[in-house]
Amino acid sequence: SETPVSSTVNAVGALIAEDSVILRSEIDGRIDKLLFKEGQPVKKGAVLVVLDSAEQRARVAAAQADMTLAESRYKRNEELVAQNFISKQALDEARANLDILRARLQQEQVALDKTVLRAPFAALVGLRQVSPGAYVKKGDDIVRLDALGNLKLEVPVPETYLTLVRIGLPITL
Question: Could you read off the pLDDT of 11-21 as tens digits, one per residue?
Answer without folding.
Answer: 888 888 888 99
